Amino acid sequence: MRKGVRFHHGRTLTTKDVLYTVQRLRDVNSPSRWQYEEIERVEIVSDFAISFYLLQPNRLFLHFFSSFYMSILPHDVAFSERNLIGTGPFRMAEFTDRVLVLEAYDDYFRERPFLDRVEFWFMPVHMEKDLYQLPDANPAKLDGHGDNGEIESVMDGCQFIVFNFRKEGVQRHRSFRKAMRLVFDRAAIIEELKGNRISPADSFFPENSKQTDVEKATLQEAKALLRESGYAAEELKLYYWNKKEFHDDARWIRNRGEAVGLRLSLHPVHLTDYYTTDADQEADMLVICESLEEDTEWGYLRLFQDEACFIRRLLDREQHAWLDRSIRSLAMLISPEQRARILDQIERRMRDEDWVLFGYHMNKITQYHPALHGVTLDSFGWIDFSKLWIKKEMLAQTGS
User: Fold this and answer.
1) How far apart are CA 363 and CA 195, in angstroms?
2) From edge to edge, which strands make up the β-sheet containing 99-104?
3) Which of 68, 242, 257, 307 has the fewest CB atoms within 10 Å of its CB?
4) Is the pLDDT reported for residue 143 higher than 50?
């Protein structure tokens, strides 16, 4: 391990902290524990050397250790969401219901951030206006028409519908899912709702979707498929991510379903209820979006294996067993091309058997003040704050 890495409370990071972090993931029953279930035993060699013994070969083991789930925590400090202690370029200075304040950490083991302080202000969940004014901000600069910088990017991932295979019901019938494929017309929803819906999805990854031509569907066949499935006009529950675009999607799907005699009730899932929602038990279908990390291989694995992800949460034991076997075989392969073929096989089965109905890919527009320089985005649209710097002349010109 690298020597001289210091936690935000001043102590040097050692192998005890690595061991504690792994053990904690197991103790709290973390949804990401699938990455470390093959660890047979761990031996601390010294303060800066640690050995992991695995039950079987895993070419992705070090890959897993570089994921954000394995952010090393100090073994001598009780975990607190309001006072996280890590080793990154910023330390947490304040965390309330209104704001999260980060301050540059002078003892960071790499180069110090250019900015001294970053503030995250939390917007109310329900707002009547599209704009939330920060305390002490200049309203003249917040009218949405200023000379702001802007970055447009296509998200790796897509919006989709996943069916609940853990719940008994008509959604488990293949003909019903085929009917929903026609109701959930990817080309039509993009054409009619527009917004940031930019292209039909036939894969989680936009580059793969480009290889497929998606035509608008007709509803005549959907009626016949519903009859074939045994659907008897019962009301089904469509859950969806509680964001405006998905609320619009859910209403669009409900209204289109009515044309073929499909009755849907709509149930929003709030971000704060992500882990506690009753969707796992009550939903018949779920409309959601997943973004893939820049490391798309690991992102795919997270979608299929992480117990916090809704794909995993809504599939049944038989589907889980098949996914687990596929992932275990993938992890033993050296060749990235061979691993990619297995991931493609997984996605193809999900698509061909309508476990998942791909919807559309989206773009994301990030606005920032023109005085900010060094703006780069990751796959989630987040800015790397450690690389930002402010051009004071520009700041003076804008009066901020």
Assistant:
1) 9
2) 90-95, 99-104, 117-121
3) 68
4) no
